[in-house]
Specification:
This protein has about 150 residues and is of the alpha/beta class. Helix content is about 30%, strand content about 25%.
């Protein structure tokens, strides 16, 4: 049995094909999340840190008019909080835990997005020692109608 030797170009081509195919089969990256926040909001920075610790790439946009972004993105006033974000075509309002955002991106429901209205103590970015308020993450459907997505 005669062994065939690879030529240098053939070997290079085989290596490129191997790299490209392994990259194509790798787990998809979490999309970038764009966060619109006041430049002076400390809890927003803490929420961004929570996202980064959970594998998200964050682009932070300081703005003097966060309300403009809420209105543009269709966040009902009753479900507002201190910052607004966008990821994968969904709006994320307030201190939504990273695991709920990951679940949203995995399940891909027909929805506007997720919100944690107000600023509940103990939610990501709102930690204050061991004190934790009970709160809900709300899924807003395409028309803005709410339903409970998760409870903490």
């Amino acid at each position: 049995m005669k062994m065939t030797r690879f030529t240098k170009p053939a070997l290079s081509l085989a290596m490129i094909i191997g790299f490209v195919s392994s990259t194509a089969w790798a787990a998809p990256a979490v999309p970038v999340i764009d966060v619109y926040k006041s430049p002076t909001c400390g809890c927003c920075v803490k929420w961004i840190d929570h996202l980064k610790e959970n594998g998200f790439t964050v682009r932070s946009h300081d703005t003097q008019d966060v309300a403009q972004h809420k209105q543009r993105l269709g966040v009902p006033a009753a479900y507002g909080s201190c910052h607004t974000a966008v990821i994968g075509g969904y709006v994320i309002e307030g201190h939504v835990p990273a695991r709920d955002i990951k679940r949203l991106l995995k399940e891909k429901p027909q929805a506007r997005g997720l919100t944690v209205p107000g600023m509940p103590v103990g939610s990501p970015g709102m930690e204050q020692g061991s004190h934790k308020d009970a709160y809900e993450v709300i899924l807003l459907d395409k028309n803005g109608a709410p339903r409970v997505y998760s409870r903490y």
